[in-house]
Inverse folding.
């Protein structure tokens, strides 16, 4: 059980350590959802995510002997940074195991806080096996990313802030991996507000361990995972958070990679916020299921630690998912002026040309014909359709194909 006093005690311990992150109203998302939507910006938290809350709470309560022995953790990045930052504040040595493909900015940030980094395995679960093995050899304390009451209680401090910043909240959307944040918010809001609040966990479809585990009543590991949302890519829920989630959370939903990409694009363009894929899971659910949630809605943006290269790729993917790109190939007579005519027509249709290519040698081309491939940026799927219809109605060229796909360069 997580009591109100336990949550308040954790919040007191976190004063001067974790920031009271802002709650931002989003008019754009409110229009999509049909109810007021507020963003709890844990992407602006120290260390770039909510993880400092649980890590510091857990580590500050270690005995003097345990602190002297040091701590060890396993993480894809956010918990790693939370542990490293808390260790520096508390004067504790920290070793962190990270998957071999962990994002380089997260690895660099963790090392920058003073932790010793070790790379192991292809997932958090595999890295955790190595971390536990070293802990048994050395006597270091394992700071689990989610499966400990102190971790959950630390994360529950967010519930206090949500209750104070948006006391009328009806639904909270929580990105979910191992379940520490979901359990903390679920138990915390019920305890703090003393009334029902629909708390919904959101997992990436390719790493959704909670639905089966909730049905079974015990943690059921996934056989495989595949998602860009590394912050919630956890194969096995924790026993501690699972029990709390069963008692205090309405349900757990899933979102696709395309839906996450579109959510990141929306947050970047309209909310002016940099959020990592896992942090955008709640927004992905909101956009995919408009009208499904009672308002006001609070969506927790759980982290903002994203590799700039990944951000570029994901935003491009999001633009594709939103129908913002159009590739079209037309066949024209190979005479002066036809290319200019096509480009002028596209400009009149408000399609922004990104790239143009010519094909003059093909088995089905006449000697006086040329195929022109054009990549355009558009305003959405409806705009793509209208551009294709307009091109198809022209006599000067014949549309061979059109597709809403990403540019090749």
């Amino acid at each position: 059980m997580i009591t109100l006093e336990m949550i308040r005690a954790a919040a007191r311990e976190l004063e001067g350590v974790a920031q009271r992150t802002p709650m931002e109203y989003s008019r754009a998302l409110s229009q999509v959802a049909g109810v007021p939507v507020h963003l709890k910006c844990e992407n602006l938290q120290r260390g770039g995510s909510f993880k400092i809350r649980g890590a510091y709470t857990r580590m500050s309560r270690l005995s003097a002997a345990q602190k002297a022995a040091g701590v060890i953790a396993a993480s894809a990045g956010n918990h790693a940074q939370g542990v490293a930052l808390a260790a520096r504040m508390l004067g504790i040595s920290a070793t962190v195991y990270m998957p071999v493909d962990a994002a380089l900015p997260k690895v660099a940030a963790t090392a920058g806080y003073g932790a010793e980094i070790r790379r192991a395995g292809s997932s958090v679960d595999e890295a955790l096996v190595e971390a536990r093995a070293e802990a048994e050899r050395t006597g270091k304390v394992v700071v689990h990313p989610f499966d400990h009451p102190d971790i959950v209680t630390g994360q529950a401090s967010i519930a206090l802030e949500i209750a104070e910043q948006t006391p009328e909240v009806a639904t909270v959307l929580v990105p979910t991996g191992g379940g520490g944040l979901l359990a903390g918010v679920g138990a915390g809001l019920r305890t703090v507000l003393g009334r029902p609040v629909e708390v919904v966990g959101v997992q990436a479809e390719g790493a959704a361990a909670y639905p089966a585990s909730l049905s079974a009543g015990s943690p059921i590991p996934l056989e495989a995972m595949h998602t860009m949302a590394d912050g919630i890519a956890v194969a096995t829920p924790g026993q501690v958070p699972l029990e709390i989630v069963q008692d205090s959370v309405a349900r757990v939903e899933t979102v696709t990679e395309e839906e996450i990409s579109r959510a990141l694009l929306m947050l970047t363009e309209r909310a002016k916020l940099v959020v990592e894929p896992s942090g955008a899971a709640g927004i992905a659910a909101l956009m995919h299921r408009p009208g499904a949630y009672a308002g006001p809605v609070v969506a927790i943006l759980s982290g903002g630690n994203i590799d700039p290269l990944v951000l570029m790729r994901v935003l491009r993917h999001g633009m594709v998912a939103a129908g913002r790109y159009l590739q079209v190939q037309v066949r024209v007579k190979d005479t002066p002026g036809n290319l200019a005519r096509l480009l002028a027509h596209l400009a009149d249709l408000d399609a922004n040309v990104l790239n143009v290519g010519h094909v003059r040698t093909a088995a089905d081309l006449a000697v006086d014909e040329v195929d022109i491939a054009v990549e355009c940026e558009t305003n959405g799927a409806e705009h793509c359709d209208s551009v294709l219809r307009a091109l198809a109605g022209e006599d000067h060229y014949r549309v061979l194909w059109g597709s809403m796909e990403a540019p090749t360069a």
